[in-house]
Design brief:
Strand order of the largest sheet: 3-2-1-4-5-6-7
Structural class: alpha/beta
CATH architecture: 3-Layer(aba) Sandwich
Number of helices: 8
Helix content: 40-55%
Number of strands: 7
Radius of gyration: 18 Å
Strand content: 15-25%
CATH class: Alpha Beta
Oligomer: single chain
Length: 265
């Protein structure tokens, strides 16, 4: 098991991607600390993972609140003896499909401000306990919007670009302390869309095109990806587990492309 004994925090663990990564980490032997704002969902996931033999703890944490994030990191470090891995899988509702002329500044800046704030707070709190041990991994999430141009996704694209830039620069900030930073750029995940904040965002784009969300995603898979399909939650989880493992010890400052080729490097 490639994460045996690793002490792993997942912020946004109750979400589609966060829970998929939690399952992958637990299967690989990670000691799990699930964090999010909805304790009931976290506890349900924790019970599932414990039933499979995992070591799992759940806590209500507001990833936008500095004190909440710091207190949780300290509690984990004191209980487990340190922090080895931190994934920020926190997502925020945002609008897509609205022309620039009709887009309000508040709708534009909400994902930009929220994403950069939560990445900053969670990375800083985890790095505080990783640095003395000269070891640790910080994982972030992005979207193809970081590098695309087009209409209707200004807030999403800008926030994704900011997350990728922060991840690259944090790798430089923290590398001499033995901390790796890897950003996972995934395209839309069909199985995750119906149960995540992304549904509302894709509804705006689909409505603009006069089709359903399912039709929008299928059209994207058919025409915009090299593989003719979109990524799955299991694939994101499996890669995140590898990126967090010692086997990826030479990887940092990287934007991992899990878009099925919708955005070739």
């Amino acid at each position: 098991m490639i994460l045996q004994g690793k002490r792993c925090i997942i912020h946004g663990a109750a979400g589609a991607i966060g829970s998929a990564v939690a399952r992958a980490f637990a299967r690989e032997g990670g000691q799990m600390f699930l964090a999010g704002r909805t304790l009931e969902k976290l506890e349900a996931l924790a019970r599932e993972l414990r039933a499979e033999g995992g070591s799992v703890h759940a806590a209500r944490v507001d990833a936008l609140d500095q004190e909440s994030v710091r207190l949780h990191a300290r509690a984990v470090a004191e209980q487990a003896g340190g922090i080895d891995v931190m994934l920020n899988a926190v997502g925020f509702p945002h609008v897509q499909g609205i022309p620039f002329a009709e887009l309000s500044y508040d709708d534009f800046q909400l994902p930009v401000q929220a994403c950069t704030r939560t990445i900053f707070l969670t990375a800083q709190a985890a790095a505080f306990y990783m640095a003395p041990r000269q070891s640790g991994v910080i994982l972030t999430l992005s979207t193809p919007g970081a590098r695309l141009s087009g209409a209707g996704f200004l807030g999403n694209g800008t926030s994704s670009a900011a997350v990728e830039a922060m991840s690259r620069i944090l790798a430089g900030e923290l590398g001499h302390q033995g901390i790796r930073v890897v950003c996972i750029r995934s395209d839309a995940i069909p199985e995750a869309v119906p149960v995540s904040h992304a549904r509302a965002a894709f509804e705006g784009m689909a409505r603009k095109m006069g089709i359903s969300v399912a039709e929008f995603l299928q059209a994207r898979a058919d025409s915009a990806t090299l593989l003719g399909r979109l990524p799955t939650l299991a694939q994101i989880g499996a890669f995140a587990a590898f990126a967090a493992s010692d086997g990826a010890g030479a990887m940092t400052g990287a934007i991992a492309n899990l878009t099925c080729g919708s955005l070739p490097d």
